[in-house]
Amino acid sequence: MKKFGLVGGIGPASTLDYYKGIIDAYRDKTGGVSYPLMVIDSLNLDEMYALAANKTWPEFTDRLVASVETLAAGGAEFAAMAANTAHIVFDAVSARSPLPLVSIVEETCKKARDGGCRRVIIFGTAFTMSSGLYADAFARYGIDAFVPTVEEQQAIHNVIFPNLQAGIVLPEDKNTVLRIARRMLAAENADALILGCTELPLIIKDGDLDAIILDTTRIHIEAIVNRLLA
Length: 230
Hints:
Pfam families: Asp_Glu_race. With about 230 residues, the protein is of the alpha/beta class.
């Protein structure tokens, strides 16, 4: 049986979702007769947030590489980072990683392509939305990707930090995020909304919008489990 490693802690709420989601999906696919082998290295969210906010990407990368090395030392055969923002430096981490890494961005692009999406809206942290991470990746798949205005990006970011990162969902926060989503979906004539932050599924659910909602956490978990069972 393969052993999987997860870089967690950024943030803790989404790491819990990954842990439970991987177990549930694995048991569903195996008929409930087994559990996956997994090791988690949980990073300090405050430290990682400060590095991202200050755009100290080399040190941010170093922390992620060190985490993957810890997972490898724990016997993991492949790994993933349980955060979209961490994927801003995915290529740099992957180049130094002792383990193969499953990319949340690439798996989401494949899912959107296979679903026939042509125009998508990207929500996430301000770091992710302003980086061009998803827009550049989707372009390689022939899909147009759009992000909110700078002001809207900050409003979404302020919902994620500190509330969603702590697992707190407030009605006024949900209203803010849905208002921006509805405006953008209409303005860009988009097919889908990409929940490009692993905490956003806490606040946006299927049925909230008249559009396809692609939950990057679920997509990533599915890819991880498929790799475990391959």
